[in-house]
Amino acid sequence: MTRFSDEDRERIRADLIKAGHDCFARFGFDRTRVSDVTDEVGIGTSTFYQFFDSKEALYLAVLLTEREHLFETLEAAVADAETPREEAEVTLRTTFGEVRSNPLIQRLFVDGEIRRIESQLDGTAADEDLIDDYSESPAVYGQVLPQPDKWVESEVVRIDDPDIIRGLFRSVLFVTQARETPVVPDGTYEAIEEALIQTIVAGLFTYEENTDRSATHD
């Protein structure tokens, strides 16, 4: 077995995740082979198993990396919002955009693939560590999308449970699945998505918050 320095191990693991990202995005999980990933990195398949116990473990690591990327993108986008309503609009638009443009984000949040992968992992210590890094719980998601807690506390929204608001924001992402189906007439998806965002935001915030927003933009 080849021995690597800590620096080399860190580099190779990062390279495997990057190559895995590219392969899984192009081919999907089922059609991607371990050899496809190792060929990209320039290592043998036997060496791969010094870093990941299985293809499923690599896929989970890739999805976790994508999740963190989305959360960082959301945090940066919301930082420029001036009002709670703008925070909501930016959050929805940014998340919709990421789901539409990134097949791995779609598979993570819309297709629910991370649960399928978790069920296939073999329970080794390395795999359990990866699973421990991921949680669907409101507490973890709240660390990434803390704004609803502030909205509820400030009484600017009509829903008094921030977890319901977070669940609403995640649930509407399923509309992206209808984008290229007969359900949505050709050329209308973007307008439908924007109308959905505006309808959700207008219904979520109180009359006073919506009025203040309108006055600000007059």
UniProtKB/TrEMBL annotation:
Signal sequence, renumbered to the chain: none
Matches recorded under InterPro entries: Homeodomain-like_sf, HTH-type_Tx_Regulator, HTH_TetR
Tagged with keyword Secreted: no
Gene Ontology molecular-function annotations: DNA binding
Xref: SUPFAM superfamilies: Homeodomain-like
Residue ranges of domain HTH tetR-type in the record: 10-70
Keyword Ligase annotated: no
Keywords: DNA-binding
DNA-binding region extent: 33-52
Stated name of the protein: Transcriptional regulator
